[in-house]
Amino acid sequence: MSLMNKNEVLLLLKQLKVNPNKKLGQNFLTDKNIVKKIISISEISKDDILLEIGPGLGALTEELATKVKKIYAIEIDPRLYSYLNQKFSIYNNLEIIHGNVLELEIPFHNKVISNIPYSITGPIFEKIFFKKQAPIGVLIIEKSIADRIFLSSDYKNISRISIGVNTFMNPVSKSNISRNSFYPIPKIALSLIKIFPKENLHPFLLEKGSIDFFLKFIAGIMPYKNKNIANALNLYFQTLNNIQYTKEEILTILHKIDYKNNKLFSFKIEEFIEISKLFFS
Q1: Contacts 24+ apart (CB under 8 A), 217-225
Q2: Containing H/E element for 159?
Q3: Fold annotation for 204-278
Q4: Looking at residue 241, what is its pLDDT?
Q5: How far is CA 58 from CA 7, 85, 139, 267, in A?
Q6: At the topology level of CATH, where does 6-201 sit?
C-alpha cells in the first residue's frame, strides 16, 4: 500500500503548490487502517462501478482501482486533477473527471466510496442518493450528521437530512473515525457510514416531479420542527407565492387521513411522505 504519512503528504502538497482548502473539504487521508476499514465494509467486487468524490491525492483510489471494474473519480482542484491523471495513467479502468460534482452529469455507478467534502454533504446526498435506484454509499462524513441519519426512537433531533436519507436509503452501519487520520486534522468529529438504497420506495417518490416537491416540502417545514404540524405547514406556505392555505384548510386536509395536530418532530418518515403527498398538486 503506497499510502503516504503526514510528512510525505506535506512534501507532496508543497511540490504541487497546493494549500489545503477548507472550503473544498481538502483533508488528506494518512492512515492505512482507515483505508483497510473502508475497503472491508464496502464489500467491493470485480463487477462494481464506483464513484469517488474528492479523491485528493488518491490514497483510497489506488486501493480501489485494483479491485473493481471501473472508477469515476471527480476532483475539483485542477492541480490535484493533473497530478491524479499522471499518477494513475496506467489504469485503464480509472477515469479522473475534473469539475464540481454538484454541476456535472455523473456516469452510471452502483457504489459511492468517498471521504466527501463536509461542507456540501447535504447537496451531495440530494444529488446522488435521493432518487430511484440510488447507489450503495460508503462515506466518511461529519459525525453530527451521521448521528442524525441513524435515527433513534427519539425524533427530537430529526432534521432535513434525517428525513431525506431515511426516505430513500437504509442506514446500515456507523463507526467513529479519528480526526488524526487526516492532514490537516479536521475540526469536526467524523464517522464512517454505510447506506443501502431502499428496495421498495414509496410509490409517491418514483417520479422526478414528486421527488423534487417532497425534498422542497421537507426543507420548507423543518425550520419549524418544534411547532405543531398545522402551524409549521402554515408558516411554510406563507413563504410561497403560488400556494396558499389557511390554517383551517390545513387542519381539514390533515384530518382526512386522521393526522392529529402534534409537534412536527413526533411524525415518522412514512407520515412525512404521506403529508407531502396530500399537498402535492
Answers
A1: 217/276, 217/279, 217/280, 218/160, 218/163, 218/164, 218/272, 218/276, 219/160, 221/264, 222/158, 222/159, 222/160, 222/163, 222/264, 224/264, 225/158, 225/159, 225/263, 225/264, 225/265
A2: none
A3: Helicase, Ruva Protein; domain 3 (1.10.8)
A4: 80
A5: 16, 10, 15, 43
A6: Rossmann fold (3.40.50)
Strand, helix or coil for residue 96: strand
pLDDT digits (tens, 9 = 90+) for 155-173: 778 899 999 999 999 999 9
Predicted structure pTM score? 0.93
Which grid coordinates are listed for 156? 427530537
Provide the 10 A C-beta neighbour count for residue 80: 24
Low-confidence ranges of the chain (pLDDT < 50): 1
The three cell numbers of residue 216 are 422542497
Model pLDDT for residues 54-99, shown as the tens digit of each residue:
999 999 999 999 999 999 999 999 999 999 999 999 999 999 999 9
